[in-house]
């Protein structure tokens, strides 16, 4: 006879919704899969922790939040969407991106198959039924043949465990939990801790608004000029008639953009020619000075130093105060340029020329604790009304590891990845059948961009599901050997670059205790795309299909 708890769980399982696929996350990856799997005839549901579509753009509403991939790279390639949508800016802000997601949801009719406010907390594989049982925090249960995680790389916030956070009398915020109602920041004393993309966007937008702004910097941000453009009357970056070719070209570029590294090395050119190229890339804005430059920039220390020196001299010229100049753009290169996420800026460095904006170097004056009044460093106590903790995320793996996912052996994903991350092609893991993820570890991810990766990986996953349906197969699982081999490829590619010499979230460095390892596939989008295509053509090599 079963126990009382057994009968309760039987009851709840009886009410489980049966699905062909459960998709988690309503950002680019998730909405793409909902549309395309449903069109292909699968019974699908999309569940999302937030209250609407947008993924990171649903959560990140802080002043200045903006994508730094330009459009039309940063949109879906479906003509039904772009023929009926006009962007207002070359680099749209967070509110415009949410409006775009509402447009996508309407044109693709997504709402009827989406459940919001549903944080997935666990998933268990049942080998007998060949299905995942997935539970959300609010108590919904799904039984799905496929479990498709589109949780992105920045879904688990990171706040350092400073003493005294709870004692602070003002407002303590992580930017990705920005309140939906407008905050009264006018004239206030505000701290921004962290100088990643979030910190610099926030600081730039807050500076003209607040009374005092203190930016707490641990590592410099080698931001490049964004070169924002406002569009009038539906005008866009390129004519719409060119869009189909443009979208096809995304898989030809290292970063999934419409530009690529050039086929020359830094010192192939004489200093004058090199300077002309740098100036041109600088003037064009976007990530061009990072990803449309000499092909050896991320590989050769001397080439890298040359790029840094150009960035440094350009940046130093914007900053008036000698101490601040040395902190924001030091003469001596602190780390390899481009091996830590480069950001795009719109006047970030110039804010430090204002007398009410302060730069605090946490290396020379570390944060000791948060106090009721503000932040106590080794030098003094700073008083604030707001402390904005732009300290980032347990990037790339944290979004997946925060869910209790257990395969047939009972082992959890956290346990499987405890010492190191293993995947096959950055899509799936051995011991976790019929489970796939997008925009995660060991794929190009931040070296690609949301929509490009969503389409490339989403199409591949759908192709595999169709293949299985055609052949009457029920179960697909990564072979252990193939995930060991993929890890070797990921490490070899990364070790050929300068990335491992630099501390960054690309290497897991930002979270205390996280294993240090290259978390990304650095072979570029074209090689990744080719590898996925070949695996499919050869009957899904690296996977066991039953
Ligand atoms: P990031 O890029 O992880 O930036 C976090 C920032 O917070 C970074 O400057 C960190 O310094 C800083 N940080 C983290 N912990 C501390 C402590 N303990 N003390 C002081 N400063 C600290 O997150 P973002 O939100 O800016 O961007 C995430 C991604 O979203 C971004 O790359 C885009 O792809 C979009 P560090 O550099 O580690 O020394």
In brief:
The protein is an alpha/beta fold and 546 residues long. It is built from 16 helices and 20 strands. The longest helix is centred in the last third of the chain and has 22 residues, at 450-471.
Structural classification: alpha/beta
Low-confidence stretches: 1-11
The total strand number stands at 20
Superfamily at the CATH H level of the largest domain?
FAD/NAD(P)-binding domain
Reported CATH architecture of the largest domain: 3-Layer(bba) Sandwich
Helicity, as a percent range = 25-40%
The count of helical stretches stands at: 16
Please identify the top-level CATH class of the largest domain. Answer: Alpha Beta
The radius of gyration over CA amounts to 24 Å
Sheet with the most strands?
8 strands, mixed
What's the end-to-end separation, in Å?
34 Å
Provide the β-strand percentage band: 15-25%
What compounds are bound to the protein?
ligand NA7
Shape: globular
What is the typical, i.e. mean, pLDDT?
96
CATH topology of the largest domain: FAD/NAD(P)-binding domain
The tally of domains stands at 2
Layout of secondary structure:
Blueprint: H1 4-14, E1 17-24, H2 28-39, E2 44-47, H3 56-59, H4 79-82, H5 94-107, E3 114-115, E4 120-126, E5 131-136, E6 141-149, E7 171-173, E8 189-193, H6 197-206, E9 212-217, E10 224-225, H7 243-249, H8 271-284, H9 288-291, H10 301-316, H11 322-328, E11 344-345, E12 357-361, E13 367-370, E14 374-377, E15 381-383, E16 386-389, H12 398-401, E17 404-406, H13 413-416, E18 435-437, H14 450-471, E19 476-478, H15 480-495, H16 525-537, E20 543-545
Parallel strand pairs: 1-2, 1-6, 2-3, 4-17, 6-18, 7-16, 8-9, 8-16, 9-12, 10-11
Antiparallel strand pairs: 4-5, 5-6, 13-14, 14-15, 19-20
